[in-house]
């Protein structure tokens, strides 16, 4: 009989969940099995997980009954929501509640909920330092996750609240890589002034989540923050320059300028960076590098992430993002 405990992974074909699936599947004698959740069990990524040894199960996080079926018989789960698919914190809150309801129904022993701060605790909606968005949020893709924490608490799910950090993969996939300015130089643009931005290799989120699940007793009921490095924009630009062998400059714009860039979510991200800039001490403090390395000794630094990923960073000849210089 297979005595391995089942970990259900929401978003298994995605960045965070995929990292957790690989961390568990690569640890053959770890005592855990993966149940990978996806909307499409026939996709290439779903099939790849199956080939690696995962049980692949169809789910829609908007359908609580499908989550109850998917969580049945498992030991634990990793829960994450997908803001950038719909831009709705209300939807994230409802989806997280569905996951909490399903976790309670299945009697899970441990859930890791991938969350972020409800920034309104620091900058209430009436505070004019940054605009209020979608009627009642400051940083919609943070605030909804932070507000959703209470679903897990109220419903009584044994939960670890995992505070994640800015993925360095945003330089590859999210249009945040170096862009050519009107002066012909390459720039990364962040409205961070001289403050530090906690960042992480997304694969390390999964590794940390696995470590937390394995050490359940220690982390249940706790909020745990993770990052691989805390770096200023100038330090990131210097590391990029060294890794890529060509000069990358830091384009330090104001949050107002960033919010005005006009791409979908620019206002949300402008507020997010402003929050991290203005509350740097809290934000970095909540994501201790020493703690992160203590649970995941192979945690990447920005330098080691760049050594592995520099060839994947597109260097666009596009002056749009630096138009606010
Ligand atoms: N980018 C950053 O720097 C950063 C940093 C911290 C936190 N975050 C947060 O990370 C979250 C996204 O996580 P991620 O990056 O791991 O996502 P991702 O890579 O975009 O993957 C999302 C996965 O979720 C699945 N999915 C989407 N909608 C679903 C639904 N209705 N039901 C079931 N599965 C669904 C999709 O799989 P299928 O298509 O196979 O169903 C997809 O592969 C966002 O909420 C974001 O705010 C991002």
What does this molecule look like?
This protein has 325 residues and is an alpha/beta fold. The strands form three sheets. The protein has a seven-stranded parallel β-sheet, sandwiched between helices. The chain has a three-stranded mixed β-sheet with strand order 7-10-12. A three-stranded mixed β-sheet has the order 8-9-13, with helices on one face. The longest helix is centred in the first third of the chain and has 18 residues. The radius of gyration is 20 Å and the shape is globular. The structure holds NADP nicotinamide-adenine-dinucleotide phosphate. NADP nicotinamide-adenine-dinucleotide phosphate (NAP) binds next to helix 1, helix 4 and strand 7. The site of NADP nicotinamide-adenine-dinucleotide phosphate has 27 residues, from helix 1, helix 4 and strand 7.
């Amino acid at each position: 009989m297979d005595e391995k405990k089942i970990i259900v992974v929401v978003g298994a074909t995605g960045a965070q969940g995929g990292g957790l699936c690989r961390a568990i599947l690569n640890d053959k004698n770890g005592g855990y099995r993966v149940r990978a959740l996806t909307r499409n069990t026939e996709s290439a990524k779903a099939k790849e997980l199956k080939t690696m040894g995962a049980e692949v199960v169809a789910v829609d996080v908007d359908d609580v009954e499908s989550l109850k079926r998917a969580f049945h018989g498992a030991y634990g789960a990793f829960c994450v929501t997908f803001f950038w698919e719909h831009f709705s914190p209300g939807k994230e809150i409802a989806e997280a509640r569905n996951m909490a309801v399903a976790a309670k129904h299945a009697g899970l022993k441990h859930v890791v909920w991938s969350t972020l701060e409800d920034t309104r605790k620091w900058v209430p909606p009436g505070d004019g330092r940054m605009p209020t968005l979608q009627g009642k949020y400051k940083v919609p893709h943070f605030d909804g996750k932070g507000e959703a924490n209470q679903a897990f608490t109220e419903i009584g799910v044994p939960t670890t609240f995992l505070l994640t950090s800015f993925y360095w993969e945003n330089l590859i996939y999210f249009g945040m890589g170096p862009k050519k300015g009107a002066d012909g130089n390459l720039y990364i643009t962040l409205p961070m002034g001289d403050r530090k931005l906690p960042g992480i290799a997304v694969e390390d989120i999964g590794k940390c989540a696995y470590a937390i699940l394995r050490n359940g007793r220690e982390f249940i009921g706790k909020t745990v923050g993770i990052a691989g490095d805390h770096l200023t924009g100038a330090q990131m630009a210097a590391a990029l320059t060294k890794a890529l062998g060509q000069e990358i400059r830091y384009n330090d714009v104001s949050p107002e300028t960033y919010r005005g860039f006009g791409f979908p979510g620019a206002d949300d991200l402008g507020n997010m960076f402003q929050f991290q800039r203005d509350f740097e001490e809290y934000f970095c403090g909540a994501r201790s590098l020493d703690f992160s390395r203590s649970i995941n000794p192979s945690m990447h630094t920005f330098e080691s992430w760049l050594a592995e990923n520099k060839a994947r960073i597109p260097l666009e000849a596009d002056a749009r993002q630096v138009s606010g210089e």
